[in-house]
Amino acid sequence: MEGLAAVALAIALVGVGFWTLIVRRNLIWKLLGLNVGASGAILFLVALAHRPGARPPIVGLGPGPSADPLPHALVLTAIVIDFATLALALVYVIFLTEHRHTQDVERLERDEERGWPQP
Amino acid sequence: MAVILLSALTLALAVFALTQRRLLWGVIGVGAHSLALAGVYLFLAAPDVALTQAAVGFGLVTFIYLLALRRTGKLTVVAAETPPLLHQDGEHVAGLEWEILSRLGRQLHRDVEVLWVTRAEIPRLLRAGEADVGAGGYLPRTDDGVVLSRPLIPTRIVAVRCGPGPCGAVAGDRCQDCLPASSVTYEDHRELASALRSGEIGEAVADLLHVRQWVLSGEVQPSETKDGGEAAFRFAVAPGEEDVRQALDALLAELERSGELARLIARYIG
Amino acid sequence: MRVLTALSLLALAGLLALGVSGVFPRPELPSADEVAAEWGAENVVAAIILGVRLWDTLFEILVYAMTIVGVKLGLRLLRWERPLPPVAETPLLRRSADLLLGPVVVFALYVAVSGHLGPGGGFPAGAILGTALLLLALAKGVERLSAEIHEPALEWAEYGAIVAILALAGGLLLLGRRGSGYLVAANVLIALEVAIGAWVVLHRFASSRGEV
Known about the structure:
The complex is a heterotrimer of chains A (119), B (270) and C (212). Chain B is an alpha/beta fold and 270 residues long. Chain B has helices at residues 2-18, 23-43, 47-69, 96-108, 122-127, 189-197, 208-216, 242-258, 260-268; strands spanning 74-79, 87-89, 92-94, 111-116, 133-138, 147-148, 153-161, 167-170, 184-186, 203-207, 224-237. The termini of chain B are far apart. The radius of gyration of chain C is 22 Å and the shape is globular. Chains in contact: A-B, A-C, B-C.
């Protein structure tokens, strides 16, 4: 039951995140959507590791089945890498704002089609 | 049970964050969503992941968004690109309004940052506090909900007819008010002009400045023009930025008195 | 376009549902408790990160370090017209930062050192330490703090931590020695690396005119 609720939440988060990624035109909103979508993907892995009535994967917390520790280990590094790549993406957004004065994706695409204005 | 409640909270926070109009609220909402998600991990028997998610997702990610969004000391101008008034020239911004805005920035000791948006977005961004000044051939509408500066350049609203077909204007522009209900709107003046040229629409309503450009460049050959009344380009100021509006009005009055505005108009518009 | 979007979202949901339904078999793993006992850990996740799947962790640390270098280079390319006005500095913030800094650093150290026994480990400890450094920067002013901290030394410490992790892991793989001492050392080094990386990113963002 709990695992099912978590999987449903993960799917919903991925949906909401990707919806924002597709629909919004502002780059920072897109990054926020990507953030939420990534957290949904991470939650999906953690939810798969969960079993009914499981204890945390730490020795000595009593008998009974423990949650699968492998997805936890996988996800732990992914969260930190997410932060680093987000920082890199924000640097490029700042770069575009500084040089092209826009965060609107459609405007950037249009400018590219027409050729960048040259000084 | 706790997982279900926390899941509902997490999803509600994510939806709240991503449906906001103001970026700051979106960032704060995503931070709160991360914290609730850490709670979900805790109840899913994953304490390591919960600790990491709380420290990174709530701490570092929120901080880095806030640092990137920081606007201290910058005068943010949202504008629709309008060639002789305000436009991108290589890596720089140029135009008549840019001359005035850069003077305003020097007076207020703030760097001026121009962001290109569509005309329809300007009032929303100003009302949300995402920007301080709206520019780029701004013809005010009554329901924009923004503060206006003194008139900058007087102009007229003109309807040009080239052939049969419906009537079009730029979305959100003052000229949109002059249209019948069954008309078409476009994102900016370039799209309006190309629609008029391709025969997609038969008539366009725009300000005199744009119509003159179209006719002079031979882009549009009107068969009939109608006068739609007087109007004036102004700057729009975000509600609550009273000091910016006062400084802008004082600067415009000073430019008018010294004749500098007339010189600028002669130089940029002719 | 809208139909396509809806269809792709549906396809995604279908794939996820397929994953849950148990179509893909789960491989039989050695018992988690056995793995933990072999590496001298009580937290099985720590034994996996620093033991069984050490290569994954090593390369993820390298990805992290590369991204930090990317951020540094990217922000260096920008020209700033005027120096940044200081971040708002209030007595309340300064006093609360003074009070909180010590406990937060001690907690981060605890999380790093006890990572093989309970929840924690190098990654969350590094993130907590990075946040503590940012707290300090907000209270003291970014300029003053970065004048006190010798930036090149910090960068060398970061690269040193990476080299030390690599050396530790290489020695481990060659000699085949396992034990909780190794886990503690690796966790502390990872915490150092993550914290310095986070500090460099946040400091660069705070001191450059990062207005978006």
